[in-house]
Write a structure and sequence with these properties.
- The chain is mostly helical.
- The chain contains ten helices and two strands, in the order ααααααααααββ.
- It has helices at 21-58, 62-99, 104-129, 131-137, 142-173, 179-202, 206-233, 249-271, 277-291, 314-322; strands spanning 330-331, 337-338.
- It is globular.
Length: 343
Amino acid sequence: MEGNINQQLLGEVTVADQVSFKDKLWSETKKLWILATPAICTRVSTYGLYVITQAFVGHIGYTELAAYSFVYTVILRFANGILLGMSSALGTLCGQSYGAKQYHMLGVYLQRSWIVMFVASIFLLPLFIFTTPILKLLGQSDSMAYIGGEVGRWLISTLFAFIVSFTCQMYLQSQSKNMIITYLAAVTIVIHIFLSWLLTLKYKLGISGAMLSTVFAFWIPNIGQLIYVMCGGCRDTWKGFSLLAFKDLWCCFECARTVWFTGDFFGVITCRFCNLGEFMGRSVVFSFQMMEAPTAKGEKRAMDSTEDVTERSSYFLCINRLHHREGVRLKNDTGGCSSHEQE
């Protein structure tokens, strides 16, 4: 190639092309808050449902307040941590499929997660059915144990509401469709306050009225999200119900189990009774995903060659098996990359 060796190949940078650090910081901050604000509002709204219910239960009596607080803190939060940890795997799978332009697989993964988390919820049901004996075993009074058993039976519907809520949020957030979640959360707070006042204070329905309002508050956004997903809000990623949802369920379960175990198990065991378990679990899951984030570039490597990796990479082994037939290219920390033709 002829020419001066000192010639600038990219051309000169003009003053107009230079952006100050302040402008860059402001631009990135705006982008961050555009994505983070809906998620923050959703989390605050979800936690606000518990606080509002607890406030109205406090008007009923001290025993009712103690029973609701105990069942919510110990039993419901334990189930919440397990299901939320399992749904984190769906966020990873949907994000990778969306980035690889395998849009149809997002709907399939969503349906698979419904099946896997429904089975997991069945195993959690005894905690809510036998709440009264559990509270008595823990040394609580008979009156508190009886009211706690009533609260536990009401929260069974909330347990299954977690399945739709967590999975639809992960599914929509992977496509940057966050505002619909925020709108539904805001409407739910208003409805919950009104129903709690109407059923608890005005009509004096007691603990049943407060819990009935809570059930409505959890299912209203779920119904709204399902309508949005299935009625045209996600045309590229939702292609209707498919029999593929029943395929490779065991690999999907292994992936969800690994995420929950690494991300929330230790929080459940060590900090659940002081309400720090969820924070620790979310932090570990986030750190794990950031450190092990897969990329779409790298050398080709056969799937079988990854079987000798260490235990800490088993999470991405599960994902590799799930993507084996969809042609999604993944790379874990061992430097390997898998690429398969879609069947």
